Every structure is written in C-alpha cells, then in structure tokens.
Automatic annotation (TrEMBL):
The lineage of its organism: Bacteria, Pseudomonadati, Pseudomonadota, Alphaproteobacteria, Sphingomonadales. Pathway: Amino-acid biosynthesis; L-histidine biosynthesis; L-histidine from 5-phospho-alpha-D-ribose 1-diphosphate: step 1/9. The gene is hisG. It comes from Novosphingobium aerophilum. Heteromultimer composed of HisG and HisZ subunits. Belongs to the ATP phosphoribosyltransferase family. Short subfamily. This is ATP phosphoribosyltransferase.
Length: 226
C-alpha cells in the first residue's frame, strides 16, 4: 500500500480586534462564535499583542482600530472586528464587511463651540480637526465647503478652544465629553456599529473564513430573533 501524501498543517487564522470601547462588547459574541483568547489576553500587565486561542487553529492580535482594517485588508489577518467608521474611512477594496454585529453603537459627528453654533455664518472653507480626513472632506464637499483637515489622534475637543480648528469631527456616544469642553454636536455624518470584516481573497480561498462568517451571521440573527 502506498503511503498517503503528507499534507501541510494550515497556518492558524489570524483574527484582529481593536483596543478600546468595542472589545468588551465583542468578546461574548466572539466566544459564542468559537474565537476564545487564552488567559494572557485578559492579563492587564501583559504587553503582548498576539495571543493564542483555545482553538489552536486561530490566533488573535489586538491592535488600534484603524490598524485592524489595515491588517485585514492586506491579508496579514484574515478576519477581525472594527467599527463601520473605520471601514468607511479607508474603503479598502480588499476589505469586506459581511456582518453588522449591532454592538458598539455611536456616531461620527461634527461639533463646534456652542457660542459659534448659535451664530452660524456661511463659509466656503473650514479648518476641521479629525482623525477621519476622508469622511470629513466628503461630508463638507457635499455641502459645497472645502475642508482643510488637521489630523489629530486624540484630544480633539481641545482644537477649537486653542484656535487649531473651528470644528471637529469625532465619534460621539453620550455627548458628555463635548459638553464638558463647551462643544455642541451640529450634524451626524455616520451612525456607527461594529462589523465583522474579512479579507476578500481569504474568504474565497479559505473555507474556515467562510465558516467563521456564517457562525457570526447565525449568532446575530439568533440574537435579533430573541
């Protein structure tokens, strides 16, 4: 009897998750879908960024939200979870967001100082502070306004008071941070929820990715029907 050919063991699937607000809501859903990180993932003292999973055929990387999209779009991770704000900002052609997880609800909004909002004036050019340059420019272009975007990654609310920009575009949940810094929300650019994202090529070539999508899709449908 001839020996069976030895098939190479497939590499673990890499699942990217964001640091911050979405992760706590995502973990129970991930666990139900079989994406369960090992104990080190929950160790606050650990500086690791890559973690084994209970299922040895998977591993998890924990990175900044914007980097989740980049890792998945370029195939370094095959799947992940990130907010729809990130998906829309980058619009990577190799990124597919097949499942709205209906968690991480917030909105991407324009805000400005309260006294300025009370006396609106027509403008053709604005300086806006944001970490969403593409979405910001598109929003204001639709209003016939040229937006010069000052890229900030945090402390956005300081920009108007220090003269860096007249408005900001940032994620808003309760609006408390805006209020505490003398700002008011003047328009909503995009309602935001967390999405399951996958690399398009991986979805077509790796049955494990397609199966993962179906597990998440079934879980969301089951939860919505409850």
């Amino acid at each position: 009897m001839s020996a069976q050919p030895h098939l190479p063991t497939p590499l673990p699937l890499t699942f990217a998750v964001p640091k911050g607000r979405i992760l706590d809501e995502a973990l129970p859903l991930m666990a139900a879908a079989g994406v369960v990180p090992d104990a080190e993932f929950h160790d606050k003292k650990s500086r690791a960024l890559s973690f084994a999973c209970v299922d040895s055929a998977m591993r998890i990387i924990r990175v900044r939200a914007f980097d989740v999209a980049t890792f998945v779009a370029h195939g370094a991770a095959q799947a992940g979870i990130v907010g729809s704000d990130v998906v829309e900002e980058f619009a990577y052609p190799d990124l597919y967001a097949p499942v709205d997880l209906d968690i991480g609800h917030c909105r991407l909004s324009v805000a400005e100082p309260a006294e300025q909002a009370e006396r609106p004036t027509a403008v053709s050019h604005l300086r806006v502070a944001s970490k969403y340059p593409s979405l910001t420019r598109r929003h204001f272009e639709g209003m016939g306004i040229q937006a010069e975007v000052v890229k900030l990654n945090g402390a956005m609310e300081l920009a108007p008071g220090l003269g860096l920009a007249s408005r900001i575009v940032d994620l808003v949940s309760t609006g408390r941070t805006l209020k505490d810094n003398g700002l008011v929300e003047t328009s909503v650019i995009l309602p935001v929820t967390a999405r399951l994202i996958v690399n398009r090529a991986a979805l077509k070539t790796d049955a494990r990715v397609a199966a993962l999508v179906e597990r998440f899709r079934a879980l969301v449908a089951q939860r919505d029907a409850a």
